[in-house]
Specification:
6% helix; five-stranded mixed β-sheet; single chain; elongated; nine-stranded mixed β-sheet; mainly beta
Length: 232
């Protein structure tokens, strides 16, 4: 995620502010649903649950490591995670202690790729065309006078209940810009003792790295002997 100094570093956005972008993203109007089914043998699920183990999901691009835990949930015999294509953006502050997520001061629920969004510290601008930003990327410009925590949002449901939305996290100095690439790859593993919101989580060597296919369902089953997930 490249950082560069922004020409708008005086604390004032270049356009009137809004919590939603101008226009509508095609990815938002015609969402592509991804489904991930995670299964454990009943005896294995019971033993892992009793030990306090959880399932962890962390997202990344082809050229990066995960910057945050996207989702974690207790081990059960079967769980289904679903999400749609397209991303939002957030700007906020570092979480305190064992907070579940950072304090989000402003969000853009449906961001347009190829645009630059100015973050004032409390709100986002509507999104300027950014010719220098790759087509599928999203740029955030920190026009606030203090550093900010920024990143991508993408809501997910766990067995039909909304359970996550913060996908990536980056500490952005005042007066700088950063562009974010899509994060299609997914690390999945079983572990314990990870903070609820962890920056740059350490992904264990036995984590499974997958790239879910749009519109399909990926089925994983946990191999207790190998301590990893196996696609079915």
């Amino acid at each position: 995620m490249p950082l560069r100094e922004s020409p708008h570093a005086d604390g004032a956005p270049s356009r009137p502010e809004s919590t939603t972008p101008a226009g509508t993203s095609p990815l938002a109007t015609v969402p592509v649903i991804y489904r991930l089914v995670v299964e454990f043998a009943p005896a294995c699920a019971s033993a892992l649950a009793d030990s306090g183990a959880q399932v962890f999901l962390a997202r990344c691009s082809a050229a990066s490591d995960p910057s945050a835990i996207w989702l974690r949930f207790p081990v059960r015999s079967r769980s289904c995670v679903a999400w749609a294509d397209g991303y939002g953006l957030y700007g906020g502050r570092l979480p305190n202690g064992d907070a579940r997520r950072p304090a989000l001061d402003a969000v853009v629920r449906r961001a347009l790729p190829g645009r630059s969004y100015a973050f004032s510290g409390t709100r986002f601008g509507p999104g300027d065309l950014a010719p220098g930003t790759p087509t599928a990327h999203y740029e955030v410009r920190n026009d606030a006078r203090t550093p900010a925590l920024v990143g991508l949002l993408q809501a997910a449901t766990l067995d039909g209940v909304v359970a996550a939305d913060v996908v990536t996290a980056s500490f952005l100095p005042a007066g700088f810009s950063a562009d974010f690439a899509p994060v299609p790859r997914l690390h999945v593993w079983v572990g314990r003792g990870v903070r609820r919101f962890a920056f740059a989580p350490v992904v264990p060597s036995n984590a499974l790295l997958i790239s879910p296919a749009a519109g399909g369902r990926l089925h994983l089953r946990y191999d207790a002997g190998a301590r990893t997930f196996v696609p079915q």
